[in-house]
Structures are given as C-alpha cells and as structure tokens.
Design goal:
Elements lengths: L10 H23 L11 H17 L6 H15 L2 H17 L8 H18 L8 H15 L6 H22 L1 H6 L4 H19 L30 E9 L4 H7 L4 E8 L3 E8 L2 H9 L2 E10 H18 L3 E9 L2 H9 L4 E4 L8 H9 L3 E7 L6 H10 L3 E4 L5 H10 L6 H13 L2 E7 L4 E3 L2 E3 L4 E5 L2 E6 L2 H12 L6 E6 L5 H14 L4 E6 L7 E5 L1
Parallel strand pairs: 5-6, 5-7, 7-8, 14-15
Antiparallel strand pairs: 1-3, 1-4, 2-3, 9-12, 9-16, 10-11, 12-13, 14-16
Helix pairs in contact: 1-2, 1-3, 1-9, 2-3, 2-4, 2-9, 3-4, 4-5, 4-15, 5-6, 6-7, 6-9, 7-9, 14-15, 16-17
C-alpha cells in the first residue's frame, strides 16, 4: 500500500488517525447504508456508526492531555455516550477495549496496536449476549487474531496495519457465506464495511501523514431524533417546519445542501418524485420558497418551538416541585407524532422521537432517564436496533433500570398497557414480556432497490409487507399487499386489529382501509389511529 515506514505512533498521530477514520466513514456512510438486508428505506448502519465515531472525535478534541491513553479513554467515552444502533454500540465497545489495551502506553508500536485490536474484539464480543458470526464482530475478531499472528514479523506499523486491513477485507467478503440472510440479499455485512472504512481512514493518515478530508456537504450532520426538552437548552432555530415536495427528478441531497445553512435538525428523504423535508429554522418562508422551485408542496406544518418549549418548562417545573418519586417511570422510543401521543396517553413519562433511521444514542436515553422521578424506570426501545443502546444506558445509570426488549411500536404499546403500578418489578417484567408475545406486528413500506429475497423478485417502488421481521408480501397494489400481510397475521385466536397510518397516508384512505378490514375480519375488533410515522405507510398490530 505504501513505502512509508513507521515504528511508533505518538498521541497526536493517534488522535489524527481517529479523526481520519471518522471522516472516511462519514464520506462513505451512504455506501454502508445501502447494504441493507431488506430493500426497505431504513438503511442506517453507516449513519449510526458515523454519528457514534463523531462523538468520539468531539470528545478527543476536548482532551487537554496529549497522551495515548488519554486519547484512547476520551474516544471510548465519547463513542460510548454517542452510540446509536447495534452497530454503533458494538463500535463503542471496540473503542472501549482499545482503551483498555492502550492503558499506560506512552507511544503505540505494532505490538501494542495488535493487543489493542484484540482487546477491542474481546470487549465487543462480551457486550453482545448472543454474538452472531458474519457481522462486524467477525470482521474485528478475525483481523485482530491475524494481527496477533503476524505482528512478530511486522515491526513497521504501516506494513502491519496494511496486513490487518487486507484480512478485514477478506473476512468481510466472506460474511455472506457465514450469514445466510446476507447471501439471500446479495450484500456483505454493513457494520463490517463501516469498520473497514474507519480502518482505511486511519491507515491513510499513517501512510501519508494527512487526515482524510470531509467531502463537500459531509460536515452537515443530520439530526436524526428529537429529544425531550432540557431546561438549560436554548432554542436557536424557533420553527419546526415540515412538508412534502411533489415533482420530477428531485435530488434530496442537492436540496439538503441548499437549505443546510438555514437551520438544523435537517432531514430530507424520498425518491425523485416525492421528498419529505424536516428542518428547524428561523425563516420557514425562505425554505418554502426554495422548495417551490422544485414542485408542488403539501402537508405543510410549522410549529413555534419556543412557545412549546416555554409551556413544557412551566408544566415540568410545576410537576417537579410537587412530585415525589413514583413507583414506575417509563421512557419510550416513538416513531411519529401520533404514536408519541398514544404512548403519552397510556402512561409513558418521556418520549424520545426515533425508530427506523432515527436511532437515539445512549446519551439521549440517559438524559430521558435522568428527568424522571421514579424508583424503577422502564425503557421501551420499540425497535430491535435500539435495544443494545438501551442496555448500555442501563449499565451507565445509577437508577434501577428495566429494559423491556420491545422490537416494534405494537409491542411497546402492549407492554405499556400491561404495566401495573401496584405490582413488583419482577411481576411487571413477566406481565410485559407476556404482552409482547401476544402481539404480532406487520409493516407496509416500499422497496428502494431491485432485489431478490427468498426467491421472490422485488422491483424498486414495489409495496412491501413485512410480518414479524420477514418480507411476506410484494406487489404493485398496496391493498393487496395489506390483505396478504393480514392473512398471515390473523388466526382463530385473534380478536383485535389495530392500524397506525403514516405521514404519507391520507385520512380518507385510512378510513376506507378500516371499512375493508372490518368487512373481511368480522370476528375481530378493528381500530385505526393516526401514527404519523415516516417511511412506513401502515403499522399493523394483531392481538
């Protein structure tokens, strides 16, 4: 890879290696996002890993002591708090192990680097209850084991890291053989690819002495969740502005860059014909003017967040001054304003807006925990990709935390309904776990690419039905896909069908669907609610 030779890495060089690795991943995060097993619009592994390592970079930039172990500790702490999604949590554990391996090290040679990589692998494996081979875990383990094997003959760090990266690349290419679901989808593991981009960025600095530079537009970090308000928080941009643009050949990335300086918490997603925009700005009119150049606007919603913020602070202050610790408090992750409201109505104390493509960090969950006065705090992640971050928050909190491993919104709602403030924590865990087992979840979305899954050809733009985590229906007519999903979910024991319709579904369409379902499933009660979730037209619950 390079003719450069290097025997040791100083603290400053180590710091620059991490920054270079972070920048390289940020530049390539969309490549990682596209390695989604299902062809659905929620690929977020690259984004999660990039946000996780960017938290490490923020922390090392504050580091006053220019020592290897201090830099490693800062990177570990930053990534730990900023970890998002399963891949981000595993990455934070690799950094944690790395810091253990570099404890007391003054300058890094190839032996200490090999040991740190191995410690990173060991720590990551210990953090996962049931490690799955064919993932980022396999990539870090096999490359670290190879590093230990070859280090005796690799005193030159550039040569050593080059060998480790070649091994990581080789292992990554074999992940589809280890994990059948990757082979079916025709992709390598996304987390492993993200790790490879980090290692390559680190290598680039080591070999050239130059940090990988962020590509134009990369520095704009998408704020992918809306946390609960903090008393000390100052709202810089006062209007939460949302709308849809309908036109032809709209490029979401170009429009995102166009409005990048107009506010924060910017999300611009969609295909060339329909693009959803979310931004916090002080001048909604200017943003809307730019959008009108691209097409017709609909579902325009502008909220004054400063007013809302003041109301929340007043209400919270009144509540806090009178409130003693109650027995149970609940933190729930929600996807969509309607679902947030439902969870609040049935007893959630704090809502973190997030879910698919919007995974909250460990720190976001901790902040929500800290705001609740309760002897026991229950976390409902409501997404399989948030459970590890919830457990990481639990391990860092001084409070008594119970993580109920809910993997969907219907599971979260059922679990919350089963919570009894009079029962013991053990009894409530049993009640809530039983409630999860008695609800089935279906999702209706669309395909973002052509693919073949389980022998079924899927074309970009097809409607997809997902039942209990597997693709169960594909078609060009949404009603037919919904009917197939329901036929898979409803059996003789089913008594209640609940539909949550998303932000892209009109109310009249949802009401028409409710009538159709009532006609077909006369033995079941049918309820329909506005969920407001993005990307998923409908979330279906069957109990």
């Amino acid at each position: 890879m390079s003719d450069t030779h290097k025997k040791v890495i100083s603290a400053l060089e180590f710091k620059n290696m991490i920054i270079s690795g972070a920048n390289n991943l940020e530049n390539n995060k969309n490549t990682v996002n596209q390695l989604n097993v299902f062809p659905v619009p929620d690929g977020d592994t690259g984004t999660n890993m990039s946000l996780t390592i960017s938290s490490a970079v923020k922390e090392i930039s504050k580091c006053k002591e220019m020592e290897v172990s201090s830099i490693a500790d800062s990177a570990a702490n930053g990534s730990l708090m900023g970890a998002r999604g399963n891949s981000g949590v595993i990455l934070s554990q690799i950094f944690r192990g790395f810091a253990k391996g570099l404890k007391g090290v003054k300058s890094i040679d190839s032996v200490s680097l090999a040991n740190a990589l191995m410690e990173g692998s060991n720590t990551a494996y210990k953090a996962v209850m049931k490690p799955t081979e064919g993932t980022i875990l396999t990539v870090i383990r096999e490359s670290a084991e190879y590093g230990i094997k070859v280090v005796k003959n690799s005193a030159d760090l550039v040569d050593f890291l080059s060998k480790v990266i070649n091994k990581a690349n080789e292992t990554l290419s074999k992940t589809p053989e280890m994990l059948p679901i990757l082979k079916q989808a025709g992709v390598v593991d996304a987390g492993g690819m993200g790790l490879l981009f980090i290692l390559k960025g680190m290598y680039h600095y080591l070999a050239t002495g130059e940090v990988v530079q962020l590509l134009e537009g990369s520095e704009e970090k998408v704020e992918i969740f809306r946390p609960v308000y903090d008393e000390a928080e100052e709202i810089v941009f006062g209007y939460c502005t949302e709308f849809l643009i309908k036109g032809h050949d709209i490029n979401p990335d170009v429009f995102r860059m166009k409005i990048a300086d107009m506010g924060d918490s910017i999300v611009v997603v969609g295909d060339g014909n329909v693009v959803k925009v979310h931004i916090h700005t002080n001048n909604p009119g200017v943003v809307i003017e730019e959008a009108l150049k691209l097409g017709a606007l609909s579902k325009i919603k502008i909220d004054n967040m400063r007013e809302q913020h003041q109301e929340i602070l007043i209400n919270e202050a009144e509540k806090d001054s009178n409130q003693e610790n109650k027995c149970y408090g609940v933190v729930a992750v929600a996807m969509g304003s309607g679902i947030s409201r439902i969870l609040k109505d049935i007893g959630a104390d704090a809502i973190i807006e997030g879910g698919q493509t919007m995974n909250p960090s460990t720190e976001d969950i901790l902040k929500s925990i800290d705001r609740i006065k309760a002897d026991n705090i229950i976390i409902l992640p409501n997404n399989s990709n948030i459970i590890m971050a919830a457990n990481q928050a639990k391990s860092l909190s001084q409070k008594n935390i119970i993580v109920i491993p809910t993997k969907s919104i219907p599971q979260g709602i059922s679990a919350l309904m089963a919570l009894d403030q009079e029962k013991s924590p053990d009894e409530n865990v049993k009640r809530m776990t039983k409630a999860i087992e008695e609800v089935k979840t279906g999702l209706i979305t669309y395909a973002v690419r052509d693919s073949n899954f389980d022998g079924v050809d899927i074309e970009e733009g097809n409607y997809l039905g997902i039942t209990e985590g597997r693709i169960s229906a594909v078609g060009e007519v949404i009603d037919e896909v919904i009917e197939k999903v329901l036929s898979d979910m409803v059996d003789e024991d089913s008594s209640l069908i609940t539909i949550y319709y998303g932000s892209d579904v009109k109310e009249e369409e949802a009401l028409k669907l409710e009538d159709n379902i009532k006609e077909i499933y006369t033995e079941c009660d049918v309820e329909i609610h506005y969920g407001g979730q993005p990307l998923y037209y409908y979330i279906i619950s069957v109990e």
